[in-house]
Every structure is written in structure tokens, then in C-alpha cells.
Specification:
The chain starts with a strand and ends with a helix. The chain contains twelve helices and twelve strands. Strand 7, helix 8 and strand 8 form a beta-alpha-beta unit. It is α/β, with parallel strands linked by helices. It has an eight-stranded mixed β-sheet with strand order 6-7-8-3-9-10-12-11, with helices on both faces. A four-stranded antiparallel β-sheet has the order 2-1-4-5.
């Protein structure tokens, strides 16, 4: 087992709104090991992206990190001076965002943007920067990197722009990379290519990768371990294959059943009924109970975290217990 790289413990991130205090992240804990790909999945508004931003210290008012600990290689990031945190971003930890045009500067050539990323963490020569840039672009599958390096972002396709953003994230050999739905806006064939390239990058560089997505199908072919998030909390965790084959939480079961690949030909897609609760007015107990077909009176109390080998979940009526009660294997 590789050494633990990232340790997140009881992380809480809150936002002050006119409607009240929104608990976007509410007591989240998980680890990422070096060379491991961890998927963080859930519906929109579940707190996935805020978790990623919190790790990097990218939360600004009216948001704040209210509690918890985030350690990278044992070094605490919460409360770290801003100047020190800036030296770590891009060098020890990097992020790839959903929209590459929000990352890339439209009026600078790709070469200039890659040079800025390198100059932020050293003083390489012009020749060295160009060679490193060409190597990084080739590593993410960009053909003819010499020509692409001197292009402007608007001259590249969406898939090419996202590859450039990924190349910049890996440029300074970070220990941890956080990807916030970087393939959502791309077509399926480009998504598949980038997923293959990401797995190769992680294997070759030995970095830890946290892949944030609402698309369970995408995460399932990439991550070795899944974290399922709902209403600001991790409600299930475990090895990807085990979670997909034997989900414990009814919400996880709902996410799996709603995958397009599970729909019968000519039939409507299965949906989880209802909508996610307001983060400013979360119900007591299990936040999923209003949408759950198995909810009972006990669900108005908070479920304890259950541990089973490499699996954890928070549910009063886990799926394997329901199956056993119904005489199913």
C-alpha cells in the first residue's frame, strides 16, 4: 500500500446566505494515497466541488472553512499563511477545472501560459521551459506539440484546451492533482481518450488523483476507490468494483440505477425521486430520507458510520440488510 498523501478529517465549509447558513461540506473525512485515483461522486449541489476548493484553500467570503483538517504529506493546509499556500499550489498540489477557458488566458499563447506556470516555482531557462512544455503536451496526447504550443486557446478544440489545462497541472510534477469534472463538456470519444491519458499520467508520475464528478460511469472506469457524497457528507466509501456491485446506501443504489447504460432499450431513464434538500435547512437525521423508499421513523436520527473491511457507509437500512430480509443473495 502506498503512503497516505492527503488526509482530510472532519472538514466543514460553510457559506453565509440570506436564507441562512449553508453547510456545503459537513464533516467530511477521507484519504488519498500516492499513485491512487479516488472518485468523489454525487448529484449537483452535493458539495463535491466545494470539497476540492477547500483542500486548495480557494474558499473566499461569504464562504469559510469552519472546522477540520487537511494535511498534505503531513503538512496542515488549513490556516496556512496565504504566501506559503501559493507556493504549494501548482507545485505540490494542482487542480484541473471543468471549463478550460476559465483556466486559460484567451490573449496569451499556450507557450506563455506554460512558462508562467514554471516561473512561479523556479527560474528555468527559456530553452528548458520550451522543452518541458513540449514534453508535457506530448504526454497528454496532443499531436504536433510544436504547433500547438504557439497557438492561442481559441485556435484549439475543446478537447485540446482541456489537454493543455491538464498538461499545465502536471507541469511541475505535483504530488496531488484534483480534477473537478474536467471531461463533462467533451464528447464521449474525447472523454475516453483523456481518461486513458490520465490513468497513464498517474501510473507514470505516481501522483494521487482526486476525480470529482456527477458521472458515475466515467468515474467507475478511472477510480480504484469511490466516495459517494450527499448533502455535504460522505455517505458511502469503498473499492469501486465492490460499491458498484454491492452498494450499501440506497442513494448509491439510485445513482447506479440512473446510469444510462442500465436503462432498457426504449424505456425512460430511471431517476431518483425528489430533489436534494436545501443546505440551509437540512432535515434532521439522514438527509436522504425524504427521497428514500426504505425510510422509516428511525431515519429521523443520524445514522452511525458502519465499517466493514474496506467499506464504510451511513444508513439505518443498508441494502444488504434489505436484501437479506427479502430472501435475496
Amino acid at each position: 500500500m502506498s503512503a497516505t498523501l492527503l488526509q482530510v478529517c472532519d472538514l466543514a465549509t460553510h457559506f453565509s446566505t440570506r436564507a441562512g447558513l449553508a453547510k456545503a461540506v459537513d464533516g467530511v473525512s477521507f484519504n488519498v494515497a500516492a499513485g491512487e485515483i479516488v472518485g468523489l461522486v454525487g448529484e449537483s449541489g452535493s458539495g463535491k466541488s466545494v470539497t476540492g476548493y477547500s483542500i486548495l484553500g480557494l474558499i473566499d467570503p461569504p464562504g469559510r472553512i469552519a472546522a477540520g483538517s487537511v494535511r498534505l504529506d503531513g503538512e496542515e493546509l488549513i490556516g496556512m499563511p496565504h504566501a506559503r499556500l501559493r507556493t504549494l499550489r501548482g507545485r505540490r498540489v494542482a487542480m484541473v477545472f471543468q471549463d478550460p477557458m476559465s483556466t486559460l488566458n484567451a490573449v496569451l499563447r499556450v507557450s506563455a501560459q506554460m512558462q508562467l506556470a514554471m516561473l512561479a516555482h523556479g527560474k528555468p531557462s527559456v530553452g528548458e521551459m520550451r522543452q518541458r512544455s513540449l514534453k508535457a503536451l506530448a504526454r497528454v496526447g496532443i499531436p504536433d506539440p510544436e504547433r500547438r504550443l504557439d497557438a492561442y486557446p481559441h485556435e484549439l478544440s475543446g478537447g485540446m484546451r482541456q489537454r493543455v489545462a491538464i498538461a499545465i497541472a502536471f507541469l511541475n510534477n505535483p504530488a496531488l492533482v484534483i480534477c473537478d469534472e474536467p471531461t463533462t463538456a467533451l464528447d464521449v470519444s474525447i472523454q475516453a481518450q483523456i481518461l486513458v491519458e490520465m490513468k497513464t499520467l498517474v501510473r507514470d508520475a505516481g501522483v494521487g488523483l482526486l476525480w470529482i464528478s456527477h458521472d458515475l460511469a466515467t468515474v467507475s472506469v478511472l477510480a480504484s476507490r469511490l466516495l459517494v457524497m450527499y448533502a455535504g457528507r460522505i455517505i458511502e466509501e469503498g473499492p469501486t468494483a465492490e460499491v458498484l456491485q454491492r452498494p450499501r446506501h440506497p442513494y448509491t443504489r439510485g445513482l447506479i440505477d440512473s446510469m444510462p447504460s442500465r436503462a432498457a432499450p426504449g424505456r425512460d431513464l430511471v431517476q431518483i425521486p425528489g430533489a436534494t434538500p436545501s443546505l440551509t435547512n437540512l432535515p434532521s437525521g439522514c438527509a436522504f430520507r425524504a427521497r428514500c423508499a426504505y425510510a422509516s421513523a428511525v431515519c429521523s436520527t443520524a445514522p452511525e458510520q458502519t465499517f466493514e473491511a474496506a467499506r464504510t457507509w451511513r444508513c439505518h437500512h443498508p441494502m444488504q440488510a434489505l436484501a437479506a430480509a427479502q430472501g435475496q443473495p
